[in-house]
C-alpha cells in the first residue's frame, strides 16, 4: 500500500489537525464549564501547547473553534480570553435567546410527529417530574441543557440551531448554579413540564409563549451573577 504524498498528504495532515483542535477545544470547554478557567482569564498559548502536546497552528485552530462556540474572545496581541460579560451583555444575550428559543419551541410543536420526536419528548418530560431534579441543583442544570438542545433539534432548523449555539453562558455556569434555590428549581421544572405538554399537544403558540417566559426567568436570575459590571 502506497503512502499518501503531495497534496493528499497535506489534506490528511490538515484533517488530523482539525480533529485534534476540536478535541482540545472540548477539553478547554469543560474547564470553562467547571469554573477552572474564569471569565476574563487569558489562555496562555505556551502552557496549553505544553499541556496538550500540540503546535502553535493547532492551538490557534482551537482558539477559532472556541470563539465560534462563544466561549472566548480573540484580542489583538493578547491571544484568547475567556469571554467576560457585563449586565448589559447578559440582558441582550437572553433577549435574543428568548425569541429564538420561543421560535424553536413553536417549530418543535409543528414537528412533534416527525421521527422520534414524540417519544423523546415524553421521556424528557418524565425526567422533570422526578424529585432528584428539585433537590439537586447540579443535576437540574445537567438535565436542563439536553432538554433545551433537544427542543432546538426538534425544530429542524439548522440555521436557528447555529445562531443559538454561541448564546450560552458556560463561563458563568458555577456562579449561576450557586444562585439556584429549590424554589427556582421547582418553578423551572414546572416550566419544562408545561412546555413539553404544549409541544406534545402540537400547540405552537402556547409552546412559544411558555418558552419565552421560561428564558425570561433565567435571564432575571443571570442578572444577579456576582461580578457583572
What would the keywords be for this entry?
single chain, about 230 residues, mainly alpha, Arc Repressor Mutant, subunit A, Four Helix Bundle (Hemerythrin (Met), subunit A), two-stranded antiparallel ribbon, 11 helices, 2 strands, about 5% strand, TF_FadR/GntR_C, DNA binding, transcription regulation, transcription
Radius of gyration: 20 Å
Q: Could you give a short account of the major beta sheet?
A: 2 strands, antiparallel
Helix vs. strand class:
mainly alpha
Biggest sheet strand line-up: 1-2
Number of helical segments?
A: 11
CATH fold descriptor of the largest domain: Four Helix Bundle (Hemerythrin (Met), subunit A)
Instruction: Give the N-to-C terminal Cα separation.
Output: 61 Å
In the predicted model, the low-confidence regions spanning at least 5 consecutive residues are none
Overall CATH class of the largest domain: Mainly Alpha
CATH architecture descriptor name of the largest domain = Up-down Bundle
**How many DSSP-defined strands?**
2
What proportion of the residues is helical, as a percent range?
A: 55-70%
- The dominant shape is globular
Strand content: under 5%
Order of helices and strands: HHHEEHHHHHHHH
| Total tally of structural domains | 2
Kindly state the mean pLDDT as a whole number? Answer: 89
At the fourth CATH level, what is the homologous superfamily of the largest domain? GntR ligand-binding domain-like
Amino acid at each position: 500500500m502506497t503512502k499518501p504524498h503531495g497534496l493528499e498528504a497535506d489534506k490528511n495532515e490538515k484533517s488530523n489537525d482539525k480533529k485534534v483542535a476540536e478535541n482540545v477545544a472540548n477539553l478547554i470547554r469543560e474547564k470553562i464549564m467547571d469554573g477552572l478557567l474564569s471569565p476574563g482569564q487569558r489562555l496562555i498559548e505556551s502552557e496549553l501547547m505544553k499541556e496538550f502536546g500540540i503546535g502553535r497552528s493547532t492551538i490557534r485552530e482551537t482558539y477559532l473553534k472556541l470563539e465560534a462556540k462563544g466561549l472566548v474572545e480573540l484580542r489583538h496581541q493578547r491571544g484568547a480570553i475567556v469571554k467576560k460579560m457585563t449586565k448589559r451583555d447578559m440582558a441582550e444575550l437572553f433577549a435574543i435567546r428568548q425569541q429564538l428559543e420561543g421560535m424553536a419551541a413553536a417549530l418543535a410543536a409543528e414537528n412533534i410527529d416527525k421521527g422520534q420526536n414524540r417519544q423523546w419528548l415524553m421521556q424528557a418530560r418524565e425526567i422533570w417530574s422526578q424529585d432528584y431534579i428539585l433537590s439537586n441543583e447540579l443535576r437540574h442544570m445537567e438535565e436542563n441543557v439536553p432538554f433545551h438542545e433537544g427542543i432546538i433539534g426538534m425544530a429542524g432548523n439548522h440555521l436557528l440551531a447555529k445562531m443559538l449555539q454561541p448564546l450560552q453562558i458556560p463561563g458563568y455556569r458555577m456562579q449561576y448554579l450557586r444562585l439556584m434555590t429549590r424554589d427556582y428549581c421547582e418553578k423551572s421544572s414546572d416550566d419544562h413540564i408545561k412546555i413539553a405538554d404544549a409541544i406534545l399537544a402540537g400547540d405552537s403558540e402556547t409552546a412559544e409563549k411558555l418558552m419565552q417566559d421560561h428564558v425570561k426567568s433565567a435571564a432575571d436570575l443571570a442578572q444577579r451573577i456576582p461580578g457583572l459590571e
